[in-house]
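Handoff note, outgoing to incoming analyst
You'll be picking up this chain. Sequence as last confirmed:
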Amino acid sequence: PEHYNDRQWTHVIEPFEIPDGWKIYRSFDWGYNKPFSCGWWAVDYDGVAYRILEYYGCTNTPNEGVKLHPYEVFREIHQIETEHRWLKGKSIIGVADPAIWNSETGESIADVAAKFYVYFQKGDHQRITGWMQMHYRMAFDENGYPMMYVFNNCKAFIRTIPSLIYDEHKVEDLNTEGEDHIADETRYFFMSRPITPRQVSLTDAYENSPLKLFLDIDKKDITQRPNIPRMEIIDE
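Most recent structure output, in case you need it:
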């Protein structure tokens, strides 16, 4: 695609080497029968987030989990983080679904992760607020630059995010029957670094007004209508 390199009007870009000073994050959503999802993010000095790597536990059938034991999952995550040149030696900030701390049936998923030196903080589970953060991040400014990008090697993100649909009964939320595991871990990450929506400057209304289009009146010759206060009747 034509904008992979200039990064305008696109979210998907070619991978590049991550500068040493950028912060690295890991977001995680657990799944067994359904896919688990682990994403790694780099954040530049302007706060722009880049999804640089992912580990998605899905079979060749969409939304079907590979049914790996947590020990296998976090052994692999630890290996990736100690061997991949973008991650090794980095201090990685982990954020995950708060449900992985549930230990009612014994050892929690978070406990297993810690055994492999994979640590997380509890993600903010507010769904609507999280989806708004995704909207803010993905929105383009007036020059066509968003606040998040995805390396084109993150194929599961690229496949699943566009396929998500809104819930028919709660239109501000996603339909949870969809393949939303990557969306969920992305939401946890964005909620750990929330941003405010950027203001896009409005186009000059004069350029499309009848004064310019049909009467050809110069903008500097237009005077504002005086603000005349309304008559006020005071009862005596």
